[in-house]
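Researcher: Here's a chain I'd like modeled. Treat it as a single chain, no partners, no ligands.
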Amino acid sequence: MKLFVAGATGLTGRHVVAALREEAPDADVIAHVRPDSSRLDHWQTHFEALGASVDVTPWSPPSMNETMQTLQPTHVFALLGTTKKRGREAKASGSEETYETIDYGLSKMALDAAVHAGSNPRFLYLSSMGVGPGASGAYLKVRHRLETEVRASGLPWVIARPSFIIGERDQDRPMEHVGSVLGDGALALVGVFGGKKIREKYRSQTGAELGRALARLALDPAATELLAESDELRSRAKS
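Model: Modeled as a single isolated chain. C-alpha cells:
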C-alpha cells in the first residue's frame, strides 16, 4: 500500500500519519509538506522519525498530477483547510489564502491528481459537521461542493464529517475552542437527561481520535462510498 497524506502538517494530518504507521507498519506512508514551509526541516525530521517518507511536491496541477502518476498511490487523504485569521495574515503579506483557494482549491487539486494517477486510489476527504445542500457560509459551502465532486469522481471514497476537533495546533483557533467547550457543556447536560446518542454524535473529539478513525477507515476494505459522521468516527477510534 502507498498512502499519500495531503495536509499532513495539520492537527488531524499529523495524527493520521502516526496512526497509519501504527495500523499498517509495512505500508508506505507519504506525508506531503509544502516545499516553501518555514518548518520544512522540522516536519521532515518528525515524519521520518515515525517511519514515513516526505513529499514536497509544489501545489500546482502539473506537479501534483506528475507526482501521483509516479507514486501510483492506493490511498489519498485530503485533510486541508485554513482559517479566516490565516487568510488575513496571508493577505497582509500579499498572498491569497481563503476557503475557496485552500479548503476547496487544494482539495480539488488533490482529487484531480488522484483521478489522473490511474491507480484508482481510495480518496479520504476531511469535511465537516453541518455540510449539506442547505449549508450557509463560505466554509460549509465549499466543502459541500468538494463532497459532491468526490462522489462523482469515480474513485472509491470516504467522507468524514467530524464535530469540533481539539488538540494542540500550530495556530490557535479560539472560536473553535470556545465552541467545543460550550458545546460539550451543553451536550453533557443533554446526556444527563437521556440524550446520550445526541451527546455522542456531536461532542468534540481530539485530533488523535480522529486520526486513528481515519486511518482505520482507510484500511478497512469494506469502508467505501461511506459518509462517516462524528459518532461513526468516534466508534472507529475506539474499536
